[in-house]
């Protein structure tokens, strides 16, 4: 990769190895040392190192323009005219080695750069890539309950402002590279977005008109979170009211009065989010094999679960006595699967069900062997720990998704030839 600093005539070359390392998953756990050399003929100046922290790395963690300016400064290189580039940014954490060499003459310079890395302490709050962390319900139950209610507060803002979509698909949150997001929410002629950032543990509210607000995610009551969040919305010019009674939780307390739930354990929130990432990737793979109507992979804040749903294309029999939410959710035949972090069962588990449930569904043999049918929930379950400890968690979970779908679709007479990718 060759980079040019505009207006300076200075070129920097990064080796392929360096580019791979800069783009790698482990970038947060690396130091970088940049080596530059002034190329002014056979007697080139000696190579001088510049040590920088990884948050300045290319693509995700380095701002290349800033890095070039810093490197040129450290090598005593000046732009044509000899003056330092005005307005150069000096990011914190960059250790520049001062040069005693005189400023070079006006002219054009060619700089060759190589990058070295060495490990530094990894972030304890983020699980290593490809690992399925433990998530015992008892260890984070209070944090779980608090975070559940916080997501309901944010989710109800999206519900209040977003046009209704079939099966309540305007309601959920989505897993993204930092946590959970509402995606774009319409407001008058603009949009805004709310994101739970589980890396830096903050709530971000960003708008299309350029304003933003950030709130810390920390141990605080639901009432305090609700007050700070609604105040932040008002400061951004977003004025709305939401129904402040929680949904789908036992013994609900209005948000503004809830001082009972006030826990926030960063470690377990990070583990939870890591599991959502792993599940979402496999759910998307499963979803891609179906060409009929299916839902996005989304996170419902009411039931606090990540799920994906396939549809046969046929309307379901009307549910006599069902409430409006249930009637809309199950207006058509579905086979759905998802992940509960704990509240749906006695601990974290994967689930799958068919609605309406065809005769004989509960007796079907499901993979892997640890999966079982719960007659009270009327769902197949696979405990998270059975997936986490499997030789291949990916294969174990995918086989659960596929075998439960196969059982339901075959028994219900779905037109699989038309609905599935050949």
Description of the molecule:
- With 422 residues, the protein is an alpha+beta fold.
- It has three domains: 2-119, no CATH class; 137-266; 268-419.
- It has helices at residues 16-22, 64-74, 137-161, 222-235, 266-288, 324-329, 384-388, 393-412, 416-419, and strands at 2-5, 10-13, 30-36, 48-52, 109-112, 114-119, 174-175, 179-181, 185-187, 190-197, 202-207, 212-216, 298-300, 305-315, 332-340, 349-355, 372-374, 379-383.
- The strands form four sheets. Strands 7, 8, 9, 10, 11 and 12 form a six-stranded antiparallel sheet that branches. Strands 13-14-15-16-18-17 form a six-stranded antiparallel sheet. Strands 1-2-5 form a three-stranded mixed sheet, with helices on one face.
- A hairpin with an 8-residue loop joins β15 (332-340) and β16 (349-355).
- The radius of gyration is 27 Å and the shape is globular.
- The model is unreliable at 1-125 (pLDDT under 50).
Distance between the termini: 41 Å
Number of E strands? 18
Describe the main β-sheet briefly. Answer: 6 strands, antiparallel
Q: Give the total of domains.
A: 3
Q: What oligomeric assembly is this protein in?
A: single chain
Secondary-structure element order, N to C: EEHEEHEEHEEEEEEHHEEHEEEEHHH
Shape: globular
- The number of helical segments is 9
Share in β-strands: 15-25%
How much helix is in the residues? 25-40%
What are the segments in which pLDDT stays under 50 over at least 5 consecutive residues? 1-125
Mean pLDDT: 79
Given helix and strand content, the structural type is alpha+beta
List keywords for this structure.
422 residues, six-stranded antiparallel beta sheet, alpha+beta
């Amino acid at each position: 990769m060759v980079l040019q600093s505009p207006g300076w005539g200075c070129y920097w070359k990064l080796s392929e190895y360096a580019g791979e390392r800069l783009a790698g998953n482990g970038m947060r756990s690396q130091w970088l040392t940049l080596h530059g050399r002034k190329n002014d003929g056979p007697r080139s100046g000696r190579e001088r190192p510049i040590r920088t922290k990884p948050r300045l790395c290319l693509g995700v963690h380095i701002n290349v323009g800033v890095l070039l300016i810093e490197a040129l400064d450290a090598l005593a290189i000046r732009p044509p005219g000899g003056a330092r580039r005005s307005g150069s940014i000096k990011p914190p954490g960059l250790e520049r080695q001062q040069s005693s060499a005189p400023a070079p003459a006006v002219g054009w310079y060619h700089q060759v750069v190589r990058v070295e890395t060495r490990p530094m302490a990894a972030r304890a709050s983020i699980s290593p890539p490809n690992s399925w962390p433990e998530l015992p319900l008892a260890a984070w139950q209070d944090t779980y309950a608090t975070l559940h209610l916080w997501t309901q507060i944010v989710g109800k803002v999206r519900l209040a402002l977003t046009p209704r979509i079939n099966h309540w698909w305007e309601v959920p949150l989505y897993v993204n590279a930092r946590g959970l997001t509402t995606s774009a929410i319409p407001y008058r002629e603009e949009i805004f977005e709310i994101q739970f950032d589980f890396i830096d543990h903050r709530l971000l509210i960003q708008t299309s008109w350029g304003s933003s607000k950030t709130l810390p995610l920390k141990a605080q009551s639901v009432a305090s979170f609700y007050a700070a969040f609604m105040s932040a919305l008002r400061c951004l010019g977003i004025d709305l009211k939401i129904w402040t009674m929680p949904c789908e939780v036992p013994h609900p307390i209005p948000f503004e009065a809830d001082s009972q739930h006030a826990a926030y354990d960063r470690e377990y929130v990070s583990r939870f989010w890591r599991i959502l990432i792993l599940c979402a990737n496999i759910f998307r793979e499963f979803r891609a094999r179906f060409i009929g109507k299916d839902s996005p992979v989304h996170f419902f804040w009411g039931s606090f679960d990540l799920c994906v749903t396939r549809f046969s294309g046929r309307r379901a029999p009307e549910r006599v006595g069902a409430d409006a939410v249930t009637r809309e959710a199950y207006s058509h035949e579905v086979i759905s699967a998802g992940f509960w972090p704990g509240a749906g069962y006695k601990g974290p588990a994967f689930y799958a069900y068919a609605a309406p449930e065809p005769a004989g569904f509960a007796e079907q043999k499901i993979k892997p062997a640890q999966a079982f049918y719960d007659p009270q929930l009327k769902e197949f379950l696979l405990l998270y720990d059975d997936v986490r400890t499997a030789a291949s968690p990916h294969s174990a979970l995918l086989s659960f998704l596929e075998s439960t779908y196969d059982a339901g679709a075959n028994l219900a007479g779905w037109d699989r030839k038309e609905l599935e990718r050949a």
